[in-house]
DNA sequence: ACCTGCTATGGGAGCGCTCCCGAATTGATC
DNA sequence: GATCAATTCGGGAGCGCTCCCATAGCAGGT
């Protein structure tokens, strides 16, 4: 393994000059620069990032903390972040901080304090107050994806607005008995969930449907949505004609449940989601599209700015979703069509 | 930020002694050790991993290269790896190497050569020959999860065996027209796919059903499985009575397709998968369970051993799957029950 | 009394880089 | 011809740690 000293010797210059030539900063004549570059290439020189970091205090590495990676939203955000970082030549260190786990505590107490990164991106973390404190105490820029606090920069979907629009879409189609699926005090995303539930509630109230408003708890996964929907839909008398799902996975679970109960979608039941999940098309799900990949990229962009100028004030990017109309929603029908159940 | 020199001063010892006390190696009296520990605690001392790495050559960091993170198998393996690393106090830097992408090339050409890790885990990479070369050229231990080469240690499901068992399960139930869903020359997992297809083929041949063997191409995703199954099942005359799916996502796609076509599962069509995906239970899918999370942990274990003793010969861990019988498979029926299609 | 071997500690080189600073050269300006 | 700014380069300190080596005290054996 050759170091910069070897490169310098090979090029017939000093270490300092070699360093300057390679980093592109400071005065170096074009000719020497070329000579150094060639020497480096010849020797297959790869700078030691460790030595660089030690000397400069910059790690060229970004930390990403998230509670899950095996869920669509998180995985997509992660890929977005990764792509944006690779483009900039930066490494990505992942910290998987499952809520309530003992490792989560260790991550905040010990892993993060090592500060092996120039900045941190927290994705859907919903950090406790003390967790947020310890992140900020690191003295490194922090950007959140999803979140409602004002202490870091945030890029997030406008949850309340989205849920409002989703509800309005159903109201415009003539529905009145519109249920919300996926709110829960037990869920892991208190902020997102409550905002979406709020949006739904508000729209219902605005339309004079406050009385009709109802919500059923469900974790934000497909199987949970399925189970919750089965329960919600099983009683034909109280059954809603439309469902606002907290996210697409829940919505798809509801569609599958409806099919199994013999309820035609959208004739007997309209379902709208939020996400535009990779399965949405397959289930013809009408939904509001958010693109987590872009959110990841935006977070990186924000973080870069903040690393460059740490005095920058926190920024909040509240993204507007776009309605994707497919065929899981339709006008209210009086006859409430039902087909035979396909067990 | 206080360094080890501060700790040493505070404890009234030399840097060397402080270092020894903290690292636990070398001769230090219990009393001094305590004193140093207390001093460190008091000052909130956090060692600079950079300085440590520079000095020792060890990074306390593991690199993970994978082509996707937004797929069940990969995400699960990643979580398994992460958990195992956190337990050992090691960091994880992620490299997302999408096949065919230009960033993939950059990862191998430039990111990996920085060697910011003590070892590498390649998950389902299916590396090109030159990619494998450049990974091995780093001089760091490499462990693969999924793969068929002998140049690194590997932990992988016994694909051929699993597919054979799956096929045999259906044969034992009396099926003869058994189709394989999910093989494809265009897919990204040539090794896995071909092994599973081979296993299927072999079982069919062993049972004298070589003539009946047929396979339909499908990428290894739920929507792709759905599309492929729709095509495969639409012609009632050529339709198989059972399907061996290359993985659970494809299997579930097939089940959904069957339902929509009005084919009762398992009365009219048996479907068996491989994975035990998180959705498998919800679709009552009979499948062979593999636990990617454990594979990740096993890979870490293997890697640790190899880091400790780099002369160790590559090890191949071929995992046996366990059959999980649910109700997507059943005995062949002569009447080929069909229900009405639920559109 | 002396040597050996173990324990306990400190001194200081070295890991590979960056970057401050000073020296040297050039060229332009007065 | 002197002054000054702009450029080009090398020397070397320093980033924060580990670890080799030297030193020294203190058994215990001969």
Structure described in brief:
Two copies of one chain form a homodimer. Chain A is built from twelve helices and twelve strands. By secondary structure, chain A is an alpha/beta fold.
Please describe what this structure looks like.
The structure is a homodimer of 343-residue chains. By secondary structure, the first copy, chain A, is of the alpha/beta class. Chain A has twelve helices and twelve strands. The first copy, chain A, has helices at residues 4-11, 15-23, 30-43, 49-56, 72-87, 102-111, 129-136, 159-172, 190-206, 222-234, 248-260, 292-308; strands at 61-66, 91-96, 119-123, 142-145, 153-157, 178-181, 214-216, 242-245, 270-275, 286-289, 316-319, 322-324. In chain A, the strands form two sheets. Chain A has a six-stranded parallel beta sheet, sandwiched between helices. A six-stranded mixed beta sheet of chain A has the order 7-6-8-9-10-12, with helices on both faces. Chain A is elongated. Chains A and B meet through helix 4, helix 5, strand 2, helix 6 and helix 10 of A and helix 4, helix 5, strand 2, helix 6 and helix 10 of B. Chain A binds a DNA duplex (30 and 30 nucleotides) through residues 3-5, 13-17, 19-20, 23, 25-29, 32, 47-48, 50-57.
